[in-house]
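Weekly puzzle thread! Below is a chain. First person to post its structure in token form gets bragging rights.
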Amino acid sequence: MNLANAITASRLALTPLIIVSLAYGKVNMALGLLAVALLSDVVDGYVARTMDQITDLGQILDPLADKTLFMSLFGYLSWEGDIPMIAFGLFLLPHLALIVGGGIMYQEEQGVIPSNIWGKGSSFLVSAGLIAIFFEIPFAHALIYLGVAGSYVSAGIYFYIGMKRKLEAAK
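Winning reply:
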């Protein structure tokens, strides 16, 4: 496992620690771990690009780590009543579809679809919204809903690219 993938794997490992910290009322610890996790997302991408460590594993592991982190936080905060359950449900739909669709494409050896600006932007808005929830910033829910909307656009782009690849492979 290369350095970039190890950093990504550490983000995946931080997710349960963040949720457990929240469950035990250790909000500052959870925020610190969340900051490390979000920073690691930037660092692993930088390391992968600059050190030529882009791998299929990394292209699968990175979005999986992101989705696991965000789904876990959304689920926990919805359970606690900090985020409406409808937001959690709306968030789950495109992300579960992306996980399943990505798995199918990989299994059919059609390669990994690289991330797009809509996915990066929606992740940024969701991250900002989740952090804003912790600090009780009034527009936190607006950021979350904008991020959720962006994830639908991103999922649509992935779906289009995936269908295009599938049709080209069938020729």
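Puzzle host: Confirmed. Bonus trivia for everyone else. The mean pLDDT is 90.
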